[in-house]
Structures are given as structure tokens and as C-alpha cells.
């Protein structure tokens, strides 16, 4: 974690650039974070405007090849992973905004995850035990659900929040806050109330 010039790593996963609830939430988090961290900067990863390619066979081979045995081809295949991991480890706060798509995460976010969850870089496996290697950042998840009921009847179908929190914990990020809005496909008044409540939660995360 960079303590002299804090960095907010913002990763947006919604396919929509306009009318996205998660992007609105992320804007709110970013504004509050910036107000609290004078001199800090924002590193942006917009996975809709600038998609991360899915890993390929050479990428996987490079992940499991000792550094001294890496060929030029394998270094090229893992260069994207190297860059994304460097951004992650340099962050003071990691902000991930993501809607739920078909009960899970957007595929664009999965592509980013497959590059950053890497043995020897973000997690280790020693004597039968896994150990996270990303110890600095705090994480904030800005999530949106088209339907309501994910806190009740649809809870077992929520593979967004549990997946992201488990994965971040696995790589070593243990301070994780969640800002979520449900029923984003409801009538305009309901959506407005839910979004307003979520912005209240954002203010509570970053008190002035």
C-alpha cells in the first residue's frame, strides 16, 4: 500500500455506461474517498470501455513457470496480469462496482479476476495451506441487483456478494465493506429511495 500518496483503484464492471446504478454508487464512493484523502489519486479500470482479455493457455502456463524459466512469449502472455496485480497491490482502497448478471458477476469482471488471482503473487500455497499476499488495501463493493429479495427469498441465488467477498479475503484483503442497491428494475420512486439510502451508507463509510 502506498502510504505517501494513497491510490483508489476503481474497477467498474457494468456493461452500461449510462444509467448504471453501480457506476452512480462508485461515483459517490470515489467522491467521499477523495474528500478524505487529499493528494490521493484515482486509478480507473473501466472493464466495459477497456475490457481485459480472458486468460489463454500461454497465460496459465506462465503463471506456473518459475521466473528464471520464463520465455519471451510467456512474459508477454503474463504482462497484463503483472500490470493488474501491481495496480492492486499499490492501492490504498479497491473499489469494485458490479451489477448481478444471471445471479453472478459480469464476465468482464471475471476476466480481471482471473488475471489478479495468481499463485506466488496474490496468494501462496505452503504446506497444504493457502495464504493471501495482498495485505494493504481496504475494499469497497458497490453492487446492484435488478430484483429485490436477495436479502431473503433470493439469498441462495446471490453469487455476487459472497463470491467477491470470499475471493478478496482469499487473496488477503480482509477489510471489505459493501454498498448495495436492490430492485433497480422497480418503479422510479422505489429506485430513487434505494439509491438515496445507499448513498447514506457511503457517507457512513467515509465520515467527514
Major beta sheet summary: 5 strands, parallel
* Low-pLDDT segments, ≥5 res: none
Q: How many structurally independent domains?
A: 1
Instruction: Please state roughly what percent of the residues sit in beta strands, choosing from under 5%, 5-15%, 15-25%, 25-35%, 35-45% or over 45%.
Output: 15-25%
Strand order of the largest sheet: 2-1-3-6-7
The global form is globular
Structural class: alpha/beta
Q: Helix coverage percent of residues? A: 25-40%
Number of helices, where a helix is a run of at least 4 consecutive DSSP H or I residues: 7
CATH class: Alpha Beta
CATH fold category name: Rossmann fold
CATH superfamily: Flavodoxin domain
Number of strands: 7
Please name the CATH architecture: 3-Layer(aba) Sandwich
What is Rg?
18 Å
Distance, first to last CA: 23 Å
Order of H and E elements: EHEHHHEHEEEHEH
User: What number is the mean pLDDT?
Assistant: 94
Give the structure's gist in a few sentences.
With 208 residues, the chain is α/β, with parallel strands linked by helices.
Give an overview in words.
With 208 residues, this protein is an alpha/beta fold. The strands form 2 sheets. It has a 5-stranded parallel β-sheet with strand order 2-1-3-6-7, with helices on both faces. A two-stranded antiparallel sheet has the order 4-5. The chain has helices spanning 21-36, 57-63, 72-77, 79-90, 107-116, 161-170, 188-205, and strands at residues 7-12, 41-46, 93-99, 123-126, 129-132, 138-144, 176-181. The protein is globular and about 60 Å long. It is 38% helix and 19% strand.
Amino acid at each position: 500500500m502506498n502510504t505517501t500518496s494513497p491510490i483508489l483503484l476503481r474497477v467498474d464492471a457494468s456493461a452500461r455506461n449510462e444509467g448504471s446504478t453501480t457506476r452512480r454508487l462508485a461515483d459517490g464512493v470515489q467522491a467521499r474517498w477523495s474528500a478524505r484523502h487529499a493528494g490521493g489519486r484515482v486509478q480507473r479500470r473501466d472493464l466495459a470501455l477497456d475490457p481485459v482479455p480472458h486468460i489463454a493457455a500461454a497465460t496459465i502456463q506462465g503463471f506456473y513457470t518459475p521466473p528464471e524459466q520464463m520465455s519471451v512469449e510467456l512474459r508477454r502472455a503474463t504482462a497484463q496480469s503483472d500490470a493488474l496485480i501491481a495496480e492492486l497491490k499499490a492501492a490504498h482502497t479497491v473499489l469494485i462496482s458490479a451489477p448481478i448478471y444471471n445471479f453472478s458477476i459480469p464476465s468482464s469482471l471475471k476476466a480481471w479476476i482471473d488475471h489478479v488471482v495468481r499463485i506466488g503473487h496474490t496468494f501462496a500455497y505452503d504446506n497444504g495451506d493457502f495464504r493471501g499476499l495482498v495485505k494493504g488495501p481496504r475494499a469497497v463493493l458497490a453492487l446492484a441487483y435488478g430484483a429485490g429479495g436477495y436479502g431473503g427469498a433470493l439469498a441462495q441465488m446471490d453469487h455476487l456478494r459472497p463470491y467477491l467477498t470470499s475471493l478478496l479475503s482469499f487473496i488477503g484483503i480482509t477489510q471489505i465493506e459493501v454498498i448495495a442497491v436492490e430492485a433497480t428494475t422497480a418503479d422510479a420512486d422505489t429506485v430513487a429511495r434505494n439509491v438515496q439510502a445507499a448513498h447514506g451508507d457511503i457517507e457512513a463509510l467515509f465520515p467527514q
